[in-house]
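Appendix B. Chain record.
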Amino acid sequence: QDDDAAFEHYAKANRLGRARIPAYEPTAQEELVKSIITQCSARWFDQTKVDSDARPIFICGMFRSGTTLLEQVLGAHPQITSGGELAYFARCCASGTLAPYPAALATLDHGVLQEVAEGYIAYLEERFPGAARVIDKRPDNILYLGVIKALFPRAKIIHATRHALDNALSVYFQNLDEKCNYATELTHILHFNSQLRRLMDHWSTLFGDDILPIHYDEFVTDQHAQTRRLLDFCGLPWHEDCLAFHARDS
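C-alpha cells predicted for this chain:
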C-alpha cells in the first residue's frame, strides 16, 4: 500500500525507457492524424468502396482500454474465433501495398484495393481455417479504419474506451514495445489518446452505426447488459458462454 514509493519506481523505469527509444513527437502525431482525416474523407470513401460480403469484426482503441476483455467475451461465442492482434493492415501501411500511409491512398486504383481485401481474407483463412468470423483485436487498427471500411463495408468496429486518466496510468505501468514511444510519460499518453479520439470522431461521422463504443467501466459494472449490446451489434444470438468467458481453457 505504499503508493508513493511504488509510483517513484514506475517513474524511474519510464525514465530509463525514454532513454532507449525514439522520442515521442506530439506535433508529428497531430500531423499524421490530420493527414488521415484529410485523405480518408467522405468523398474518398464513397469512390473507393470494394464490393465485399465479408463481415470481419475489429476491436480497436487505446492500449489498455479493455480491448482484450471484449475479445475474450466475444471469443467465447461458438460462432466467433479470436484472432488476437493481427498485423495485416499495420504491415500493409508501413511497408506494403498501402505505404506510405496515408498518402498512397490518393493514387491507388480499385484493383489494388481489391487485392488488399482478398489478401486479408486469404490471411485469415490461412491462420484460422474454417472460421466463420474472426475478431481482429489490434488496438492501433483505429488508424486504418478508413481503409478497412472501404475494403469491407459490412465490417463491424468495436471501439473500446476508458477513463483517460485510468487508461494513462495503466499504460504507464506497462513496459510496452518501443513503437509505443508515448507510453513512458503521462502527458504524452494523454496526448496520444486525445489524438486517437480525434480520429475516432472522424470515423464516427463516416461510419455511424457500424461503430459500437464500449466503455470499460460500464462493461464491468453491468456485464450482462453490455454483453447483450455487443452480441446484438455483431448480429449474434445470445449465448451464456459469453458471461463465463473467464472459465474457458483458452
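Further analysis of this model is presented in Appendix C.
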